Structure formats: C-alpha cells, structure tokens
Amino acid sequence: MPLFTGDYNSFHVAYQDRHTQFTVATADTATVHVLAAKSADRQIFVQRIFLSVTTFANKTLTFQDTANTPVVVAAFLIPTTQPTAAGQQNYQIDFGPHGFALTAGKGLDMTISAAGVGAAIVVDAYEVVNNATAVAGTN
Fold it and tell me: Which residues in the chain come in under a pLDDT of 50?
C-alpha cells in the first residue's frame, strides 16, 4: 500500500496509471474484463468508478476482482426508469486517493445481471509492484 497522501493524480504519476473507460450496450450480458494486472507481483488499486446510465433497466452491474473467490468492489443497482431529478442518471463510487486494493495479481471484472442496461463507465485506478525484483548487474 502506498505510504504517502495526496490527490488522485499523484498516485497515477508515482505508480502506473490504469485509468480506463468503456461502454455497456443494452444487449450485453457477458462479463467485461475491465483491467488485468500486468503480472502476479502487481496489485491494482481502484480509486473511483463513474457510471453514466444511458438506458435504464432493473439490473445490477457488479465490479469484482478476478480471484477464484471474487472480492466485490462495488455494485450498482440500476432502476427500471430514469429518476425524475436532473443528473440522477450518474453514479459514482469513490474510495479516495489510496483506493480499494484488489487481490494481488488479479484484475477487475464487471458482471451484468442481465441484458437491458446501457451505460458509459470510467474507472480510475493505478497499479503497484508488490515485490521488488533484483536487476542483474554487469559489474
């Protein structure tokens, strides 16, 4: 886990930025592989998930790591109809600058309970190396 505090971007600069964005079509039902750890000795930290719903349906979008027993990061229950208040089609989960640690060496998936939801999604994350590896010298 990083030892310093700061804004979200300071972690993206100090470590590897893993920011991504994608869309969900109303016909989508499969698991979406959002991020993959670059190797077993790396760990992804999810800072924020932004979700802008374009088509409403009574469905759930669940973000979880790719471990054999997945650790759920966040779940969004999308209502059947758009809320009447302006701006209520946007959802956000914020874990702060340090983020939510996924299982080391694992990535981030999003599962969709069933077809029907349309959305644009942005994930802010960064990746760190957990175990230092020796570099061969040529003394």
Answer: 1-4, 137-139
